[in-house]
Amino acid sequence: MKDQAEKLRQKMLGSEEHIGRSIAVVSGKGGVGKSNFTTNFATLLAKAGKKVIILDMDIGMGNVHILVGKSVKYSLKDYLDGQVALDDATFKTEEGVSYISGGSGMSSLMDWSPAVFERLINAFESLQKEYDFVFFDMGAGVVEWSLDLLTSIEEIIVISTAEPTSLMDAYSMMKFIHLKDPQKEFYLLCNRAFTADEGLETTQRLKTVMVKFLEKDVHILGSLPEDPVVRQAVRQQTLFTTSYPDAPISKTMGKLVQQFLTAATEMKEVHASSQSSKFLSKLKNIFSRGRG
Questions:
Q1: How much is the pTM?
Q2: Could you tell me if residue 2 is left (phi over 0), alpha (psi between -120 and 50 degrees) or otherwise beta?
Q3: What is the C-alpha separation between 110 and 287, in angstroms, rounded?
């Protein structure tokens, strides 16, 4: 297994091909609109000309396909089990966003066999070469296997609301990840803010706490307003950015995407092409520890 991992590592280090960014979207608790944010954010990136894919990692409870009004025949689990090819488990929305459902029955990363793990690595390598952005829509909270995966992913968007419990859970989530990987980049977003000031205050509070207690600076992505069209879109199984493009939340999301793309261009110039090898090599190291 170590020889296989080394071959893959050398392959990635020697690659000069296009490398997409891996981004996880997390929340400390459920019900904060994480998956809704991910699907709509990814959709606007696709409309801006970017190739985007979402991996629904809320194992057994994934809902990305429900939000976009689609059903899935195969999942990531089917691919990892060797039942189907990666393309067969990949589906696309009408807006051009690709997505892979997590399926049910997936267990700890450390329980996966070398063959399954190799398929996982091959999948991630393939996706990072094909797409500009690979989003991991993680389940709420954190367990051992998801924490290990999160430490491998380049950047993390943390979704919170202004509620004190949501703020505490978001901080706890970042703390767990930071203690395992102090170099991790965090981006904060306040969802369902009643005012712009509330959104700014929420993200600034989280930023201040991270600096005070963990000496970790984080980035503020912004906030999204409370908007009734979100609930309407969910009931209709459509995306609010598509069905209600003129709604306040859709316009705000558009601004966030443009800011994100500007920052993405700057980061690409700084980090060049080393990100894919970092992402994959971290995953291989985690698996090696689990098998040792």
A1: 0.86
A2: alpha
A3: 6
